[in-house]
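Propose amino acids for all 239 sites.
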């Protein structure tokens, strides 16, 4: 399982934040999967999946990039920069665009767990990824961002209240399937067989998204770690 070793200071300083870029990448993952987990996602896909598929049909390199970047058990790191406080979508996607092409190709090899396809041996992969995320934001996320933000804020309010009732352990246990507080400073972040990571002294942020998906991310060198998780109440009335 994926374990993070979290000391008391890091846990005490952990907090929630909202990330437009994480919301957009989560929506890209949903478009890539092409199947919704509840009526809200299914309706959203009916509206936006045809346009997304037309876009990729006309750009086979970017289509291959998406398939390679999402991988199986590992997402290419340059696609998911660790969320920052009060960061706009424009600032977040600029970080994707600015990724080092050599590092991006290395990240893709890791997500593929194998060699890079010849068509992806090029330097414009960060730019292509940024353009695709910009499309997802402009066409599908941005127009409904106010409502999405309200849902995300409501989730944070509910989980903050949960801290007062059951402590951080109760919150971490319920973030998403695969997360558990194991005690002894050990936080299970997923069920994959990765070596433990010592994150004492780093920042820990918890980032809700409305699609029913999630992932983890960290800076290099590691100074901030993030757990992106599916929020609750996505079908609730916006009020």
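Proposal:
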């Amino acid at each position: 399982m994926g374990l993070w070793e979290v000391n008391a200071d890091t846990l005490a300083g952990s907090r929630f934040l909202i990330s437009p870029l994480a919301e957009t990448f989560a929506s890209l993952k949903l478009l890539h999967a092409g199947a919704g987990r509840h009526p809200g996602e299914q309706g959203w896909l009916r509206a936006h999946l045809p346009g997304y598929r037309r876009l990729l049909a006309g750009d086979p390199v970017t289509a291959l990039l998406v398939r390679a970047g999402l991988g199986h058990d590992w997402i290419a790191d340059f696609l998911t920069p660790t969320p920052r406080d009060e960061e706009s979508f424009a600032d977040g996607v600029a970080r994707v665009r600015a990724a080092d092409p050599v590092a991006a190709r290395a990240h893709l090899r890791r997500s593929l767990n194998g060699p890079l396809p010849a068509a992806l041996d090029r330097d414009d992969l960060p730019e292509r990824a940024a353009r695709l995320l910009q499309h997802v934001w402009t066409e599908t996320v941005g127009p409904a961002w106010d409502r999405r933000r309200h849902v995300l804020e409501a989730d944070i309010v509910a989980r903050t209240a949960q801290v007062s009732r059951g402590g951080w352990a109760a919150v971490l246990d319920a973030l998403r399937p695969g997360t558990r507080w194991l005690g002894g400073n050990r936080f299970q972040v997923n069920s994959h067989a990765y070596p433990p990571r010592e994150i004492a002294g780093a920042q820990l942020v918890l980032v809700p998204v409305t699609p029913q998906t999630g992932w983890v991310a960290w800076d290099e060198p590691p100074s901030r770690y993030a757990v992106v998780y599916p929020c609750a109440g996505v079908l609730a009335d916006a009020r």
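The mean pLDDT is 93. The two ends are 39 Å apart (CA to CA).
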